[in-house]
Design brief:
Blueprint (H helix, E strand, L loop, with lengths): L2 E9 L4 H16 L3 H22 L7 E8 L3 E8 L26 H9 L2 E7 L2 E9 L10
Length: about 150
């Protein structure tokens, strides 16, 4: 089953997270994704979008970016595209979760979680845009239980 891409434009306001959650729920319901995958997709996208809103735009101005969701028989794909300054969240070293909390550097847990919830996470800079692509196998794949 192929589902035409759905695009949600978002502004860089934290209140947009509620709208994102409702939109992801509608998408998951349409595809009958099931609760585990719905929750994993929600958590991963909330983390990524929160980071774009909080860290991406430092000029204090209003900005718009997009989340695109699509699906085929094998994968659900989410693409977050923003025009914030270049930032590759995957360039950061993997978080050592075995290290005591007080000895860990601040940050990085969000992308760690996203990497473990999704089957693949890819970043590229396309012109003046950051493009983060998350893919999750529809049948089996990454889940919180595997972390």
């Amino acid at each position: 089953m192929n589902l035409s891409p759905r695009i949600l434009p978002l502004s860089n306001k934290r209140s947009e997270l509620r709208r994102l959650a409702a939109w992801v729920d509608e998408f998951a319901t349409t595809l009958d994704l099931g609760e585990p995958m719905r929750g994993e997709l929600q958590v991963a996208l909330e983390e990524v979008v929160s980071n774009v809103i909080k860290h991406g735009y430092r000029d204090g101005g209003a900005h718009t970016f997009t989340v695109t969701l699509s699906a085929d028989a094998d994968f659900v794909t989410a693409v977050v595209t923003d025009d914030a300054p270049a930032f590759d969240p995957l360039a950061r070293a993997e978080v050592d979760i075995a290290q005591p909390l007080e000895d860990r550097p601040i940050g990085g847990l969000g992308i760690h979680l996203v990497r473990h919830l999704m089957d693949t996470v890819d970043y590229e800079r396309r012109g003046a845009e950051n493009v983060l692509t998350l893919r999750r196998r529809r049948s089996a794949g990454g889940s919180v239980a595997e972390m």
